[in-house]
Task: structure prediction
Amino acid sequence: MNLVGLDIGGTHVRVALVDEAGQVRAQAYGPTHAQRGASTSISLMIQMVRDLLSGASVPRLQGLGIGITGPVDAATGVVSNPYTLAGWPPTDIRTPFAEAFGVPVTVDNDANVAAIGEWWMGAGKGSRRLAMVTIGTGIGVATLVDGRVQRAADGRHGEAGHMVLNPAGPPCYCGANGCWEVLASGTALGREAKSRLWNEAGVLRRLAGGVPDRVDSRLLFEAAAEGDEPARALIDECADWIGLGLVNLGSTFMPDRFVMAGGLARHLETLRHRIEAVLQRHSVMVPYDRPLAAASLGEGAGPVGAARLALDAAMASHTDV
Amino acid sequence: MNLVGLDIGGTHVRVALVDEAGQVRAQAYGPTHAQRGASTSISLMIQMVRDLLSGASVPRLQGLGIGITGPVDAATGVVSNPYTLAGWPPTDIRTPFAEAFGVPVTVDNDANVAAIGEWWMGAGKGSRRLAMVTIGTGIGVATLVDGRVQRAADGRHGEAGHMVLNPAGPPCYCGANGCWEVLASGTALGREAKSRLWNEAGVLRRLAGGVPDRVDSRLLFEAAAEGDEPARALIDECADWIGLGLVNLGSTFMPDRFVMAGGLARHLETLRHRIEAVLQRHSVMVPYDRPLAAASLGEGAGPVGAARLALDAAMASHTDV
Result:
């Protein structure tokens, strides 16, 4: 089968031609051109898919899936994201692709398709209940049961990144104090580094060239790698919060695997020991037998997961006939 | 169809004869006789079912379901609960019933069958994603998707009652500090009342007749009803923790309904205002549109839910043929 998966971000789009076994046959990468407006941007993406198909000598598609920077309504295919897709009104992303290629088009948000990609071909292979935790600017969680995204009855996805872990913690835009994201995201780490470590005569200050605004989680990890103790202690604290969030995800969703993704997950080996110690400490009720896995497909997870959506839709319509 | 549901507790067993529409045709209630050993106890329960069937002039069953005080392995039908069923070795509860009545027997723990009962015929009717929260001695949570209990890939049920809400909180036997149960169960409320309110010259002390060990959550609610301010403040604090646990359940499981059960739920109208205010405060990411429902079947939920398990098994085997 010839399936196309797109992962549409605010700046770039990734496209992959994938077969029914999940193998990528061809791929493309280019700007989203979001600032040129929805209609032009979509036309250019359609052309990108056409070029990919003709380059791979594929005359006909069986399905096309789209992951896009949310929120997106999977039922209607309408994306409403005025932040990342600046200037776009609520836009039906599905119909133009369906008309251009004459196939059913399935749409979901980028976090969900990435999780599906990891479940199908990456670090989540074989998992029955997968929690993919993406820690970067924020904390996003996708939960999959047998590869299907769990969502609210009305289609909304979960917000496990905003569960409360410490009501005495700092306020978040979500309305809570001490939610997971405000305690353990890359943003949180940078914020705490700036406010708590700047006055130390430490490595961090040198690495930032004396400019407080340059302090972020990346510099903090660099400082810790150089042996800076306060930097290391702050990272350990963050790891403890990451662990506690996983504990709660374990007791509510009962995953058989955690797949860690996003910027902070690149430092998983630095964080792993503390995170796993927290899971161990809380293993009385929920046994700790789930080693943390790092996402293995990287940016490729999105298009592959989107292609899997297309495959499922194609199989379902085949069964219906 | 003639379906029998049993709810087997440590002291009593409830049996109901239920039709495929969920209507109870006949019911019985008696001692479990757990202390007489597993084999005798089971024989007596089988006799109880026989008496119920002959009294209702039902010659033949289509299915039988059992809810039992856990832990129970739903796959093997083996219950392993040396606490509530004192002296029982791990016991196959399924085979004796299957042999006695010649029908498929389905087994699950009592919390799960009660949730299924509420979903089928009670306060959870029509819910797609139901979270039933039982607050009493502890906090137990059952999560249902389309009436099916969500469980780990290996069959274990969740432990949402032990999610961590305040790492600075008191220690729990589960290994955590400040888990939901240790902050918001009836036991927690009694414990805090005893340690924090005893020295107040308040209503509580009078109600307890000067005996500290008599202080429990029931007396605390009585004191509050008499207008005792410290008692009221402590109950409000507990309601806030109940609310915060629901917030986290909302963000991780995305229920469309919360059904509240157990001893504390009997005071739901006293607690509701504070609980719903917490949900409201945290409604930025997960809209608050889920009024709390009180379980409506009471002790009847278990046998009805167990009968539903039997119905599902009968329908599934019918489809297989």
Observations:
- The mean pLDDT of chain B is 92.
- The first helix of chain B runs from residue 38 to 55.
